[in-house]
Amino acid sequence: MNRLARLTLVASCLLAPGLASQAAPAQTGGTIQSRAFPSTHLGKELAYLLYLPPGFDATGTTRYPVVYLLHGRGDQMTAWTTIKPELDRMIAEGRIPAVIAIMPDAPSSRRAGYYIDAQFTGTDKLPAGEAVESAFTQDLVAHVDTSYPTKADRFGRIVAGYSMGGYGALRYSLAHPELFGAAIVLSPAVYLPLPPPDSSTREFGAFGRGAQLFDDAIYTAKNYPAVIPAFVATGFPLVMFIAVGDDERALADPAQASHDLDYEAHTLYNHIRRVPGLTAQLRVVDGPHGWATWRPTFVEGVQYIFQQLKPGRP
């Protein structure tokens, strides 16, 4: 049999249906599963979506970093599933390590709880706030670290969020630096010194007290300038990636222009960049308050974060 005939025979065997069916299926990406666990601080189950990377091995020696993904106001945990193809691609191309991603649900006060422990007791139109911050930073993190093979230290945890979730990611990284070594803060709904009159921060009770929907003192105490001194005192380093779109919605009242999210993101960055121990980047992209902004900036941000968190770097 000549060489051409032998190659033809090999090709025919590889294409034969019986042999092809025995081949191992191609690994196309990670998986997303729906999970829940009983949260002590909520007094009920806390639901979340779990992303496991391609080749995930629950029984091996690999410990996986975890990215916590916080959704925006009015959204659900499923909103973050849109970036699964990007996670798959970045892991496959070696741009980031294989990671576990946790997408928790935040239904408090009609999904406008702003990821804090609310003191709002509710009205006839709105349910009471909940201890979301304690549930996430204590119950959820502990549950994840005991349930999956995580890299269970602050350099193995990243918190990311957009809009209301951007507020949450910023607060968690500064108020709980013992838990998180980095944050990705996208179009954050943060305001200095107080939110504009038509902000949702005033409408759902997250920053309220009793039956009052909004309390200036509570908002100020929770806002990032108030928590920076305590963060600095810990001596922990932190990496932060901030991004915003240049077409974010402009407030109708020109007198409130300094509260537009692009303006507030610049204000945030210029505060953060001066904080000892904090390494930060700011990106302004061509995009609105939506995934046209959040998708590319998350992709850039998570790669930047892992570059900064390489062994030997703070």
Overall description:
This protein is an alpha/beta fold and 314 residues long. Helix content is 34%, strand content 19%. The chain has ten helices and ten strands. It has helices at residues 3-15, 17-20, 84-92, 108-111, 132-147, 164-175, 216-222, 224-234, 261-272, 291-308; strands at residues 31-39, 44-52, 66-70, 100-104, 119-120, 157-162, 182-186, 209-210, 238-245, 278-285. The strands form two sheets. An eight-stranded mixed sheet has the order 1-2-4-3-6-7-9-10, with helices on both faces. Strands 5-8 form a two-stranded parallel sheet. The radius of gyration is 22 Å and the shape is globular. The model is unreliable at 1-26 (pLDDT under 50).
Instruction: Give the fraction of residues assigned to helices.
Output: 25-40%
Main sheet summary = 8 strands, mixed
Following the backbone from N to C, one meets helices and strands in this order, namely HHEEEHEHEHEHEEHHEHEH
Low-confidence stretches: 1-26
How far is it from the N-terminal to the C-terminal residue, by CA? 64 Å
- The secondary structure category is alpha/beta
Mass-distribution shape: globular
Average pLDDT number:
91
Order of strands in the sheet with the most strands? Answer: 1-2-4-3-6-7-9-10
**Count of discrete alpha- or pi-helical segments spanning 4 or more residues:** 10
* Rg (C-alpha, Å): 22 Å
Q: How many beta strands in the DSSP annotation?
A: 10
Strand content: 15-25%
